[in-house]
Each structure stands twice: as structure tokens, then as C-alpha cells.
Amino acid sequence: MSFTRRDFMKTTGAGIMVCGLPCIQQAGFIEKSESPNKKSFQFAIAGYSFLKFNLDQSLSMMQRLGIYHLALKDFHLPLNSSQEEIDRTLAKMNSSGVSPYGVGPIYMKTEVEADQAFSYAKKAGVSLVIGVPNYELLPYVEKKIKAYDIRLAIHNHGPDIQLYPSVDDIWNNIKSRDQRMGICMDIGHTTRLGLDPVTTFLKYKDRIFDIHIWDCDKPKKKGWCVEGGRGIIDFPRFFKALKKADYRGTCSLEYAKDMTDPLPGMAESFGYFNGVLAGLNV
Amino acid sequence: MSFTRRDFMKTTGAGIMVCGLPCIQQAGFIEKSESPNKKSFQFAIAGYSFLKFNLDQSLSMMQRLGIYHLALKDFHLPLNSSQEEIDRTLAKMNSSGVSPYGVGPIYMKTEVEADQAFSYAKKAGVSLVIGVPNYELLPYVEKKIKAYDIRLAIHNHGPDIQLYPSVDDIWNNIKSRDQRMGICMDIGHTTRLGLDPVTTFLKYKDRIFDIHIWDCDKPKKKGWCVEGGRGIIDFPRFFKALKKADYRGTCSLEYAKDMTDPLPGMAESFGYFNGVLAGLNV
Questions:
Q1: ipTM metric
Q2: Which residue is closest to B31 within chain A, CA to CA?
């Protein structure tokens, strides 16, 4: 019974370092080592995750998640907004510590819609449009990319729609176009096509500007979003590939489970992603 | 422009494996490899995390978190409950898929309170009491352990209270007692004393039956709970030590941040812990 020790602690008060006591041989707290190869990419959120919430609610959730990069969606800031309206939204985001890293995904079915998308991105001060232009619009969209010097990342949507189901399909359509026309690789939809996200990433990494990350429960059309780590995507292997390739784009969570209450699942997903990265460094 | 391919997909319908198409050289989905050294311990929740919620609400949160082991606290099931009351609670837990892995932490200041704690544990059908018996009660508590064949894991509470501040202090008080009198090592409170959880674990692992895991933001008394991964505890190093030692007890999240809305932080913490374990296996 160590009465002496308890009396000593009582006398010296709280916060005492027990390792200083002669009766105890104990190492003091050991700091986490700084990662020798920190990730070069940034976590972000694809605005679609907040479909059921207004911008204020979405920004509160982002603060809680500790994620401060957002791809703005039209339901938070309409595509036909004036500069003044856009500035008000940007000021609100700024006061929450959140910045837009891009806008979209924006579907472009006509030249007018392509005009609007690039004008909107410019007014919002971003240099990236995540978009889905009709195939026949690609020559026109390429001109907008050049005129604005704004990059376009085309998003693949898996088996759901015929427009760019796979990253391969995007690549086949952009490979001979301006280098600023690239890919927003959605790893969940890639998985739903039965394809491997790592193989796909390695094949097209030089033209991948943004990645939509979410875990998926089945490698087929009926597969859908689950909390990061509960699905079938091998995130350790995926992040290892990203780090090895020194990927410097964004990894943006597009979370489409429990859309009326997504915060716990988004938190678990980011926790998992950060945990995987921490585990990889040991 | 791959019109042929799109037409082909339209004809064959959704869910098609693109890798089967002759125009695409692409590996199919690659399954996550089963971990060569799966964890031997179990994640659980310390009931204190749900201080502000009734049992029904707590069980809903556990289902959402996918965690099914709970240490029952008195505010969910009073210590003086009858066998019938206990059975009703156990049936409710069972219908949610949740089982109690233990009860507590229970403070024991008198012999009557020690009697009650062990009787309660027996009625609840568990073989583990997480507890904080007064030092002078240890000989009496040891008799209860022997009479009931129920293990006691004494919980360390860091610089806040004089009773068992550190795991070293627990050890000094139990080392010559029955082997079923052991430790519930709280790694957050260990950190708040400026001590290293890994060193502590390795020193006393044979008598550690339960671990309270939570991340902590400072190695001193004013340090407190933060989401797993956002604090200073080196979880990759910690879990690596647990796996190497083949620790077979529980790792029970005791989450004391945002106690009126703990679910997102608990989800992020479990996501992080699972991510670290996944990352360690690569």
C-alpha cells in the first residue's frame, strides 16, 4: 500500500509527473513521430454529400469534421448567381474557415450550360470545374478551358449513366485534348463497374485532378456507399499508391449513405482514412 | 469518341464488367486481402460515453457504430436492480445485438458497496467488474473475487483523483493479490499523467483485462478527450504493441467530448482505430 506516494501526490497537487517519483520506473509520454512521408494530397468534401442541407448546416458539419475544402454544388450556390451573390457565399464560407477547391459536378448538355459553368467557376475564383459535359461538347469545352485557363475534371458515374461510366471512357475522350482537361476519378463508381481503383489510378494519374473517395459494399451496379472501412475497397493499398505517386490533388469524400443524417458516417470515413495513413507510416 | 462502346453498354444493360470489353485493358476489382494477423482484441464501448442518453438511445448509437460490446453503467441499470429488472435490460440489449462484456466502472467505498457490485455483476451474467474500490477494501474485495470467480479490473483516473491515479499505483496495490484482480488501463488518463501508454501496457499486460481507449490532446492534467487521431496518442505504435503481445481483452472507447452529441466523434474514433489496424497490415 503506497500511502507515502498518495500523500506525496496530495501534497504536491495535481498534474505531477509520476515518472519523477523514485519508486516508479516509468518512461514519460512519448510523442507521436512526425510521418517521414506525409501525404501530399488533401482531404475535401464533394458538396453532393450535403444534398439535404443548406450551406450553413453543411459548413457546421465541415467544422465538426475538421475538413475545410469543399466542391461547391449548385444547390448551395445556383449556377446563375450574380457576382454579388457569389461573393456573399464565399464570405460566409471564409468565416467558417472553409474554402472552395472547385465547383461541381456540373452537367453540361449545351454550349450555354458550358458557358455558364466556366463563368461561374471564374466568379467563384476557383481553377477547377468538376463536370460532365456531353461528349459532343468536348471540342467546345476545350475552348472554354483555354479561354479561362480553368481545369476541367470529368467525373465517371459507373453503371448508372451512359455518359462516362468509367475512367477509361473519360481517358479515351480526352487523351488528345488540352492537358487541362482531366479526370475526377470516382473510386466507388469504378468499383461498381468491377474495376480496380488502384490500377485505374496508376494508369491515368497524370490527368487525375480530383478523386471522389467513398467505400462501396459490392463490385457491381447494386453496390452502394458505406462508411469508410466497412466496404470492399482496399484503402491501405489505394493510399499507398497515391503516396508513392506523390499525388497532389484532392481526395474528396462524396458520401451518399444516410443522406438525411450523414455526419456520423462521414466522420467514421475520415477517421478511417486518417487512420489508414497513420498505420501505413509505422 | 467511343460510340461503339457506349452503344454496346446501352444494349447489354447496366452492371456490365467493362474489363471484358476488347477495347479496354483493365484489371478487374481486386479484393482486400485478409489480414495476416487479425487483431485478437475486441472493440467495445464504456457506458460512461452515453451518460446523457438512456439505454434505448445508446443501443441505437451502438448499432450505427457497428460496435456490440458494452460495459453497463449504473445510470442505465441501477446497481440495486432486481434479477427481473436486469433480465429485462439484458433482453433489450440482446434484441439490439448488444451484449455486456462487463459492468462499471463501479466505485466501492464500503463493504456493502462491494457486495452490491459483485452481486450485480453475477445477476447480469458477466465475469468482469470494472471498478474503483477504496484501497482499504482490497482484502475484502479479493474475497468477493474468489467467492464469485468474477474478475475485477481497477480503473486508473489520472491526476483528477487520488485513488489509483496511475496504472503503476494499481499494480503496487494488486501485485500480491489474486490473479483475477487486475487492471482496466485508461490510456487517456495515463497520458494526462505524462506517462507513455505503450510502456505502461508492456509492463503490466498480463494483468490488464480491459483498456479504456480515447485520444487526448495534452500530456498533462488539463489534457482532455478529442476524436481518435486528432490528439497526441500514437495509436499505430499502441495497437502494434497490443497485437504483438496478442492482447485478448477489450479496447473500450470511453468518449467524453461533446457528451450531448457524441456519435460523430465516437464514429470518427472507431473509424480511426480500424483504419490504423488496416494500415498496419500492409
A1: 0.90
A2: A232
